[in-house]
From TrEMBL:
InterPro entries per the UniProt record, alphabetical: C2_dom, C2_domain_sf, Perforin-1_pore-forming
Domain C2: start-end pairs: 40-161
GO cellular component, one term: membrane
Domain of life: Eukaryota
Pfam family, one: C2
Gene: LOC118313882
Record key words, sorted: Signal
Native source species: Scophthalmus maximus (Turbot)
Entry keyword Signal: yes
GO molecular function: wide pore channel activity
An annotated GO BP: defense response to virus
Protein name: C2 domain-containing protein
Length: 167
């Protein structure tokens, strides 16, 4: 069960409780109605606190992606790009850096539902006309803080990247 589901459930239960209190108050005394109004006046503050809990989810930022010595086709230099995944979520991919064995990508990627000890996966590809070649895969377990990694690619070359993860 996710945090946002629990917050919605609590909000629905509180709304029902206030409605029930007011309905019973119509049949009972003014004292009951006054206590219902006091409960209702605190509801916006409580909902604000509950909503802030969902905003406190973890945040991952990936940046400073660059490669060295990308191996490419026989006839040209690499046309490299990187696909980025966090767990099962695809965060996107960089632009293609044409004819460059040492590309540097300026894109940054963010993910607000990352989890500590989750997997950050980067796939380095070489763009071709018919089929893009997978040059290598880099994976790391996500940890709190700012981290810098160098990863050796299966088809040659290295990928450098940095990420920051905060809870």
């Amino acid at each position: 069960m996710g945090v946002s589901f629990l917050i919605k459930l609590i909000g629905a239960l509180l709304a029902y409780k206030i409605w029930d209190c007011r309905w019973r108050g119509q049949k009972q005394s003014i004292k009951t109605t006054v206590s219902c109004e006091a409960m209702a006046s605190g509801l916006p503050l409580l909902l604000l606190v509950l909503c802030s809990l969902t905003a406190a989810e973890a945040w991952l930022r990936l940046y400073n992606l660059r490669a060295r010595g990308l191996d490419a086709d026989t006839f040209s230099a690499a046309d490299g790009y990187v696909k980025v995944f966090c767990g099962s979520a695809k965060l996107g991919e960089t632009s293609v850096n044409h004819n460059n064995a040492n590309p540097w990508w300026t894109e940054e990627f963010s993910h607000f539902k990352a989890q500590e000890n989750g997997v950050l996966r980067l796939e380095v590809h070489d763009e071709d006309i018919f089929y893009d070649d997978l040059l290598g895969v880099c994976q790391c377990q996500i940890k709190v803080g700012t981290h810098e990694h160098n990863c050796f690619l299966k088809e040659g070359g290295t990928l450098h990247y940095m990420y920051t993860f905060s809870m």
